[in-house]
Structures are given as C-alpha cells and as structure tokens.
Amino acid sequence: MGKENEKVTSALQNSDMEKASMYQVAEAVLFSFIGIRKKSDLEHDAAKIKPVQIIIGGLVGGVIFILSILSVVKLVTG
Amino acid sequence: MAVIQDVHGHGHDHPTGIMRWLTTTNHKDIGTLYLCFSLVMLFVGGFLAMGIRAELFMPGIQILEPEVFNSFTTLHGLIMVFGAVMPAWVGFANWQVPLMIGAPDMAFARLNNWSFWLLPVAALLLITSFFVPGGAAAGGWTFYPPLSTQGGMGTDMMLFAVHILGMSSIMGSINIITTILNMRAPGMTLMKMPMFVWTWLITAYLLVLVMPVLAGAVTMVLTDRNFGTSFFNAAGGGDPVMFQHIFWFFGHPEVYIMILPAFGVVSEIIPTFSRKPLFGYSSMVYATASIALLSCFVWAHHMFTAGMPVAGQLFFMYATMLIAVPTGVKVFNWTATMWRGSMTFEVPMLFSIGFIFLFVIGGFSGVVCAIVPVDIQVQDTYYVIAHFHYVLVSGALFALFAGAYYWLPKWTGHMYDESLGKWHFWLSMVFFNVAFFVQHFLGLAGMPRRIPDYALQFADFNMISSIGAFGFGLTQLLFVYIVIKCVRGGEKAADKTWEGATTLEWTHLPSPAPYHSFETPPVVK
Ligand SMILES: [Cu+2]
User: Fold this and answer.
1) I want to staple B348 with a disulfide (CB 3.0 to 4.6 A). Which of B1, B320, B394, B405 is the partner?
2) B52-107 pLDDT, tens digit each
3) CA B38 to chain centre
4) Chain B: nearest CA to A19, how far in angstroms?
5) CB-based contacts of B131: which residues, under 8 Å, 6+ apart?
6) Is A71 an interface residue toward B (CB < 8 Å)?
7) Which chain A residues contact residue B293 at CB under 8 A?
8) Any catalytic annotation for residue B252?
9) Residue A11 has pLDDT above 60, yes or no
10) Residue A2 CB burial class (10 angstroms; 0-12, 13-18, ≥19)
11) Where is the Cytochrome oxidase subunit I profile domain positioned along the sequence (chain B) (predicted)?
C-alpha cells in the first residue's frame, strides 16, 4: 500500500511540474459549462491543471457568464 | 477475486440492542439508520399528502379546517424535503461512498453518529408542533414573512427544527467531502471515481455553500418573531422581499442537492443493466459541476411576481433556461449508454428508465416556468405543483427506489422479490401520472395552490388526481413489505449480484458486505 501511495504522489508531483497555461484552464472551464469534453482532452486536463487553477478558473468563468448574460439583457432592454 | 473478510468474528465488544444503534460509529449502521428514518418520514409526509388530497377530492370543505389544511401543505413540503429525501441520500452516501472508494469507514465516525441523531429530534419538533396551541406552521414550506412572523409557537418549533436539520446536513457534508478527498483506495484517482461518488462530492460542496444561508434566513425570522428585530418587517424599515431572495438563494440549489445524487445513482444503474460503460463519463462530471455552479445564479426565477425590474426578470430567465444545456447533456449520455447495449429490465433499471422519462417531463415544464410571461400566469398554481413533483417524486424518489433495489442485495445478502418489485414499479408509474399529470391542466386553468376549496370547474381533475395520489400512497406500502421480506430472508445474493456491475462493492466484497470492510484498502488499477 505504501509503495502504491508513493507512486501516486510522485506521479502527481511530476504532473505538477509543468503548469497548465491560462488558455488551457479557460478551455477546460468553457467545456465544463457546456458539459462536453473529449476523453483525451480531459485526461490531458486532469494531468496538467491543478485543483486551485480549476477553482479560480471556474469562479472567473462564472463571473464572465454573469457579465455576458447581463450584457445581453442590456442589449435587449436598452 | 472477492477478498473474504472477517465477518465480525474479532474480539472487540460493542453494545447490542438499542445501545448499538445509539452509540454506533459504523458507516453501515448509520446508513441503515438514515434510510429507516427517511422511510418513516416518507410515510409521515405521505400521510399529510393523503390528507391534502382527501380534502381536495371534492369541492367544499369536508375534512380539514382551512388552518389545518395550511399546516398540512406546509409540513408535507418540509418533511418530504428535509426529512425524507435529503436524509435518504445521506443514508445512501453513508453506505455506498466508503464501499465504492475502498475506504474502511467515513472520515469522522462520531460526527456521523451525531449528524444522524439530530434528525429524530427535529422530526419530533415538527410532528409535535401539530398539537401545540395555534397548531403547526402554516405559511407554506418556504415560510415567507409576514406569514411566518405571525403564527403561534408551532412556527418557532418549525424554525428550530430547520436549524437542527441544517446543522445535521452541514456536518454530514463535511464528513462526505473529507472521506472522498482523503480516503480513496490507492490508484482511485478523482477521475476514476464512480459517478455516484462524484455527484455526492459536488452535492456536499453545494450543501456547505447554501445551508448557512438558510440558517441565516431562519435566524432572522426567529429574531423578528421573538426579539423585536425588523429584518423582514416593512413597518420597522425591513423588507419582506429580502427574505425571498435569501431563501431562494438556498432554495434553488436545494433542488439540485436533492437531484444530483439521483443523477449519480442512475449513472451507476444504467451502465450495469446495459452492460456498457457510461457514455461520456467525463462530460457527466463536467455537466454535474456546471449544473451546480449555474444553480447559484438563478434563484429569483421563483420571484418573478414579487416585483422585479424587467432587466432582473430577463437575467434570471436567461440564466435558468441555460441550465437546460448541461441537463440535456446528461439525458443524452444516459440514452447513448443504453444505445446498442445488451439491456435487461430488472427493477432498478425500470425505475431508472422511469426516472429519465418523467424527469424529462419535469425538466420541460421547468423551462416553461422559466419564461417570465408564462410564469406570471402559472405562479402559485397547480402547474408549478405538477412541475416540481415530476422533478422530485419521479426524479429524486424514483432514483431512491432504483438505488434501494440495486444495492439491497449487497446490504442484506438476499435478493428482493423481483415480481413484487415490478408490481411496485408499474403501480407507482401509473398512479404517479394519474395523480400529477392532470395537475398541469388544473394549473393552466388557474387553480391556485395551498387552497382547501376550489371552483366547481376543477372538480373532475381534482378527483382523478386524488384517486391517483391514494393509489400511489398505498403502493408504497408494497415497497415496505418488499424491503422487510428482503431483510428477513430470500434467495442468497451473489457477491457480484449484477452481471454488468463494475464498482468495488460488487467486485471486491461478499454479499452481504461485512460489518467492517476494506480494512486493507484494495488497489485500483
Ligand atoms: Cu429554482
């Protein structure tokens, strides 16, 4: 069990070394809003993107989502 | 393959009889307690529903005084949401999360015990409030002020009960989050977790986010009632509409708290009985996360008639309609999973397919309600009642039944009675639709909710609806009989009861699952 754990954590650390770019995070968040993602892309995401990145990306995505609906509303009512 | 484990032969002693259940820290015991509690509450809430439908069987007032009728609708909603559906899902999480991720137990075993034993206290407060002077709370399950700032001590008891139930939910979710994030078997990465575990992880985060908001709303109503504050009292400078905003910021995500674990259960059952892996597992995870996030931006669609600028109405209308996108992705994925699978139709599968069929109807009527001009027509009518019963009865409750039939063999070691189960499904399916489909017509024709009497033109549909409701209620007694029969005996269940099952509880554990499982974690490849 110990060995397995070590393997898992070392794998995690390795993947942490190369950080995902902002573009990759934005892409992952965008796809999550629609709910579709290719499996290979997802595995790529899972390996590269850190949880902190995805949480911040999700919150920023949420804000952009709200702002874009608001601008549509402005357009319609204005 | 099955790692046979010590079936409780080892020598630590723990209490037996009632003390076993009072002091237990075992996730299986606590799961059983949760499930039994929620079943009892399902029948308490069901009894209130039968009272409502009996009064509405004919025009005029025959059985319940109007004040009592109001208490019945209020407590029916509160008990079903907080007493039946939510504890049932926590019960499933207690049993299944450790088994599915290969953990020996929940992370906080004593907290787990405390989370459960708060529930009967709250239930007692709710039920006994019927017998105090002034009767039980009668302002609707949403307890809007000023109705909830009036009323007798029954309302205070209800508010206190909601506090306790909220506390229990928060502790339960912290426990579930910690268990999932820290106690997975080696090799079980997040993206290898079963869908049921994923949906519960996201649900637990939603609970931690919105339950404190509900607690805030309840506390403000409590101090408005008892300590002279004026949060929601216009005469004192407060604003009753603010309550609605706070309540629904909790209330809408609450719908997803009740339905996301249902998505998880169905996502386990459909692949098993289609003998194919879940189509688009990763998009399911993404769709669940985005449904959870979006559900926090749509609350005011419950308040279109409360007075809101047009810009606000449009914002919440658009946002609400957009939730249909990730939900549609899920329905597509379930259908695609069944496509060209070698399907069989055991009872769990029947309830899952029934779930998809009826949940889609509820989803569509939800989009209808999201359209502002339509909603202004159907607000507070039976159309809304029909809509959310399609979401919560044929959504959450059918998925609960599906999950119960699916895992009963693992829990008890016995097969349930397949033909009785099929009877249970078909009777539920028919009576549910008889009871609730006609309510769409009643609502469109303008019949208001929460009223004990109605105009004569509504008489026929109400009688049909009541007959359906009585049938549906009686049918659930059959479920109790099936469960008791299954617990007490029956054909021995195989370790891997379902041919197509792939999760750890089927591949690594005997049936029934031993009292202590996965003391040595399995290795997931
Ligand atoms: Cu809502």
Assistant:
1) B405
2) 999 999 999 999 999 999 999 999 999 999 999 999 999 999 999 999 999 999 99
3) 10
4) 19
5) none
6) no
7) 58, 62
8) yes
9) no
10) exposed
11) 21-525
B301 is catalytic: yes
Q: Is residue B186 part of a domain?
A: yes
Would you tell me the crossing angle of helices B109-128 and B27-55 to the nearest 10 degrees? Answer: 20
A18 versus B45: which is more confidently predicted?
A: B45
Query: Residue B328 corresponds to which tokens in the numbers above?
Result: 């549609």
* Contact: B283, A37; criterion CB under 8 Å: yes
> Residue B115: which domain range?
24-193
CA distances, B219 to each of B161, B222, B241, B302 (Å): 12, 5, 16, 22
Q: How far is CA B389 from the centre of its chain?
A: 11
Angstrom distance (rounded) from CA B11 to CA B261? 37
What value does the mean pLDDT of chain B take?
92
Residue A44: partners with Cβ closer than 8 Å, 6 or more residues away? none
- Token pair belonging to B387: 């809509």
Distance from CA of A20 to the nearest CA of B (A): 18
Whether B496 is catalytic is no
How far is it, in rounded angstroms, from Cα B366 to Cα B467? 25
Give B181→chain A minimum CA distance, Å.
Answer: 12
End-to-end CA distance of chain B: 14
Rounded CA gap, B172 and B182, in Å?
Answer: 15
| Average pLDDT over every residue of A39-45 | 74
* Domain parsing of chain A, residue ranges: 2-77
Whether pLDDT at A51 is above 80: no
Catalytic-role residue among B192, B275, B422, B449: B449
Among chain A residues, the shortest Cα distance to B318 is held by A69
Measured CA distances, B48 to B73, B354, B384 (Å): 7, 25, 19
Paired with B381 in beta bridges are B448
The residue type of B381 is: T
Calculate the alpha carbon distances from B207 to A40, B202, B204, B296, B436 in Å.
32, 9, 5, 12, 29
User: In the predicted model, is pLDDT for residue A19 greater than 90?
Assistant: no
Query: From ligand 1's centre to the CA of B38, what distance in Å?
Result: 24
* A66 vs B: CB within 8 A: yes
Residue A12: what pLDDT?
45
Looking at residue B265, its pLDDT comes to 96
What is the tally of structural domains in chain B?
1
- What 3-state DSSP class applies to B388? helix
Quick check: is B453 in a domain? no
Residue B427 forms part of a structural domain: no
Catalytic residue among B28, B53, B301, B424: B301
Listed as ranges, residues in chain B with pLDDT below 50 are: 1-9, 11
Domain contains B412: no
Residues of B within 8 A of A36 (CB-CB) are: 280, 283, 286, 329
pLDDT of residue B6: 47
Closest CA to B425 of B461, B449, B392, B397: B397
Q: Within a 13 Å sphere around the CA of B241, how many CA atoms are in the beta-carbon half?
A: 8
Q: Provide the token pair at B297.
A: 């931006």
Task: Read off the pTM.
Answer: 0.91
CA distance A72 to chain B (A): 8
pLDDT reported for residue A17: 45
CB-nearest partner of B282 from A5, A37, A66: A37
